[in-house]
Write a structure and sequence with these properties.
The protein has helices at residues 98-108, 135-141, 161-180, 229-238, and strands spanning 11-12, 19-20, 28-30, 37-41, 44-48, 50-52, 65-78, 113-121, 191-208, 211-214, 220-222. By secondary structure, the protein is an alpha+beta fold. The structure holds zinc ion (ZN).
């Protein structure tokens, strides 16, 4: 039997007993009936907190598709104090950007440790998914207000929490690299993540030509930055 012929036996929601249909590569599964989420990796079965996010009114009339993103709260510490004086850095370099101020604040502290909330895709991405201008990054530097909504159909969560924590680290280092202009002086310092808690946020998106637009802030992402947009869409429309 070719791998494409493998059909998964539908999972049964542990909370309400209804059958759940997921994608072949999905690791986190969502119940559109009771709103439960659970992660199945190797031999582990774990409940996942999930919030179905209400779209902003101005976007609510579009045909919405929900895509899963991890929200990860992480403590970040810098092992050794970088050899710079934060007060010597020109203010135009330490722009108003929330992330830069986070870093600047961290560096000012005697014991550099702080918390940060990351938004990382749980849906599979291609190499078109660029770190600097996609919703995950933009939500991370400027978090949207998340209002809870009733459960929706959602599939396509291919990244486990473990994967997502790694993605958050990469994002942190990448943003740091792009904001530092060589002046933040973190090179050579160990950046340590202490993952604290996580949940999945079901984010509404709608189609606009070759793009998907999020229904919270209107950030755009190329459809082909997702690994399987057409498959995800087909699955969501079948239900
Ligand atoms: Zn259920």
């Amino acid at each position: 039997m070719a791998t494409t012929d493998i059909k998964l036996i539908p999972l049964r929601c542990p909370d309400c007993g209804i059958d759940i249909e997921s994608g072949e590569d999905d690791i986190v599964h969502f119940c559109s009936n009771c709103g439960s989420g659970f992660e199945v990796t190797r031999d582990k079965f774990k409940k996942v907190d999930i919030i179905f996010v209400k779209p902003k009114e101005e976007f609510a009339n579009n045909k919405l598709y929900y895509l899963p993103m991890w929200q990860i709260l992480s403590k970040i510490s810098i092992s050794k104090k970088p050899n710079i004086d934060i007060n010597q850095i020109p203010p135009e370099i330490l722009s108003n950007d929330r992330f830069t101020s986070f870093l600047a604040g961290l560096l000012k502290k005697e014991k550099p440790i702080d918390k940060m909330l990351f938004f990382v895709p749980a849906f599979g991405v291609t190499n078109r998914y660029q770190l600097m201008d996609q919703p995950g990054y933009l939500f991370t530097v400027k978090p949207p207000k998340l209002e809870s909504d009733s459960p929706k159909d959602m599939v396509g969560a291919e990244y486990s929490l473990e994967d997502a924590v790694e993605l958050a680290k990469v994002m942190f280092l990448s943003i740091q690299y792009h904001t530092d202009k060589g002046l933040m002086g973190l090179q050579g310092a160990d950046i340590i993540f202490y993952y604290e808690k996580a949940r999945i946020a079901a984010i509404p998106f709608y189609e606009e030509g070759a793009m998907l637009v999020d229904g919270l802030k209107g950030h755009k992402i190329f459809k082909n930055a997702l690994k399987d947009w057409e498959k995800i869409k087909a699955k969501l429309e079948k239900n």
